Amino acid sequence: MSHTAHIRSHRKPRPQSASKLALRAGVAGGVLSTIAVAGSAGPANAEPVTETIEMPALTLETPALATAVARSAEASQLAALDAELQSQENAAAVKAAKAAKKAKAEAVRKAEAEKKAEEAARAETRASRSSERTTLSASKSAVSAPSGSVGTVISFLKAQLGDAYVMGATGPNAWDCSSLVQAAYRQVGVDLPRVSQDQSTAGTQVSLDNLQVGDILYWGGAGSAYHTGVYIGDGQYLDAANPGKGVVIQDLSGYPASGAVRVL
Q: Which domains does the chain have, with CATH numbers?
């Protein structure tokens, strides 16, 4: 007997899988069945009888394992699809962010261009108004006046062209009709009444067919006139017309006077 026959192995038995155990059990069962049939065949001197039993085909895969493998494959596919979807969403987000940034930059550029255009338009308008004021001022200073006292009156009146009409104002940049006439004649020492009614009777009444430069025109009856102006020749007169026109030159044909007085 070997000296090691009674010495147990220190190795632990390896665990065997369920499929291997099933295989071994099937084989063992088949062997035992064969032995049992042979033993029951007859006496010892009888011819041995053998019977071949067809064993069912065995597979190493169980239904549970197949199901687990299928589920694992399905999970892997779903994970791959999720990863692809996330990648596409990230790419779309990056693209949208770039488009939004570009649109914002374009909007800022457009707003700046519109602002510059508005500033340029305002500057042009201011320059135009300044030029108009300069031209009007030059035209006032360059008025050619008749000689004598009448010339002085007409020169003063033309120097006020473009001034505003304001009821009750007496200059120097805003007038009503009678205050302008009064101020013009004050330049030559003639002290006229302040209101239109009184100015319409302040001098000698003259026919509208015999008007002379410097005659005072009135609208309404003598003593009850509501407006006055000064005749400047060529069928025209100068007056502080109304808030819409200011101090202007107009044609008598468009607004014929009711009468006239001569004070010079």
A: 18-60 (no CATH), 146-262 (3.90.1720.10)
